């Protein structure tokens, strides 16, 4: 079965959570169905969901008899322990012959190549594909379709599709996230449950208050976005060249999914049959009356702002697939001596016979911090691509000035975490002109590797590449990265196993307040359009810093020069007591995220880490006299096994 408009294929893609739901949905007016198997997918939280091997085989037979397609989600990040299971599962899928796999981890591409399998691959929304270079790079790696970033508008999708020739898949209905795909680490740091491994505990749905400038604002659920609803905009979707119209809902019930699929399928058929006479609103009211949350077109026609934030049923649990609340506000766990001893003992088990001479790196936010780092003789200085307000981005002259006095310190230029075509144009001009006095680039996305590997600047991968196993690390190394930052989501066992078996140069973020959430959604808009309901000072950061507040703590939010928001830890990550054991696992570099600290605070932190690395820190003092600047210290995801 296939639909066409002006010679272009239009595919309606519906989800199924169980075999029973699949049998009903495949009979509806969809062209294809996607579901997960028993392992390695992003919907592992609900008992009794996903299909067995036998059900996958039967589902494929049913669908192909009806001339419909089946896509199977193998779309979470793999730990080292998952790799052998993935090999066996991919061998099975190769014999089952699905029409494609939907994948997040680069390890899947590496396994398919290594094992000589014939499995078409679609890039999951969790790959966060958001620029032309990423699409070209994925095509070169064998990917045949891309599920676009949730923040991509239709005009950008139209441009990228035409310029790349790649099939694009676009979410048209269902549950959305407020955070860029695979850039949310809140669940893993607070619960040890990774949102990139199918176990998100939904902290975006908590009841927060916003504070700024000493005032409290009445933003009840400021991260809770509405459901996507593109039913009335099917003509614009078709005109943009989108190949596959994707409905979200693998955890939804059967009757609801059949209703959605039939409604959208009927509307597509009506438009194809009579585009001029097409009634956009026919059956729209029925969909609205059966909604789980309120509706939005999200980023399809530009940044939606506060109109994208949901109120319906938030906090009641009614909108969840299970009818239960996933989680309630929970504090980040406090660093304890007992847990540190456990971590040190476990890491020591995989100690290598030869140790590195590890380096210290510091990421800064302004020239004053940068000069301090050089003054203290730190091994590497990182200039970010995303600079927190009120500081301004580093200029070319700033880079030259720092390069002239950097001495033995290596100077790295970071790229923006999300790069659109304008950003590439700007960095092209900067990096292809006169030689900059930098020692390398900090790479944040696959497209930037492809674009800048010929410039002659060494490239290292930042944390948001989410490197979680040796296969993805090896693929990135093969593409030209000389160093990789370990995924910030690794629990103890995953961290120890991966790092002890990797031959690549690895860096770990050991101190600071890294971003738990990175989003296009502008939380500052709440403070600009709402009237305050009270007065209250921030507990740990300056009043001019926006914070999200629950009864369990306050998370600061910084906005960068592009208007994107970075929600940070409430506590400070601190791995100071474990540097020796991490060195024993082969970690080549330790990074301090220093962007939010004052000069004196940063000086104290750098000195403490230098003393620990030099062996001059008192052995009987766990933290070398270091005191937290913010709400305390945490071990982040290493709190969990």
Automatic annotation (TrEMBL):
Q: Name one Pfam family in it.
A: Peptidase_U32
The protein's name is: Peptidase U32 family protein
Q: Which organism is it from?
A: Paenibacillus rhizoplanae
